[in-house]
Amino acid sequence: MIGRLNHVAIAVPDLEAGAAVYRGMLGAEVSAPQAQPKHGVTVVFVKLPNTKIELLEPLGEDSPIAAFLARNPSGGMHHVCYEVDDILAARDHLVAEGARVLGDGEPKIGAHDKPVLFLHPKDFCGTLVELEQV
Ligand code: CO
Known about the structure:
- Helices cover 20% and strands 35% of the residues.
- β3 and β4 (41-47) form a beta hairpin.
- The chain has 3 helices and 9 strands, in the order βαββββαβαβββ.
């Protein structure tokens, strides 16, 4: 059912420092920072030949990654995003299998202007999973 790995998201306390690691030490192509106030994060995109890494820094008071960074002060892997063709069919299949969808269970428009859902980490090997319809 799931398709390509769309991105791996890494929460960081300092976006400039994180971007410098990927650009400098790892020699990757890194975008300019993009503030996404609706999502409570500022993002840089690290372009890899087969996928992307997104470095997320909290933006504003109620950032969804604030609690994660409080538990992981030096940063850490926050979620993985898999592509699906039909997000409602994917959700219905997963719910029927006993998986928990976060929030009200309805897809939201995500950071790439496409419908997304998040799945409970306890149902997916301890990893927060984002599904994105492509
Ligand atoms: Co994501």
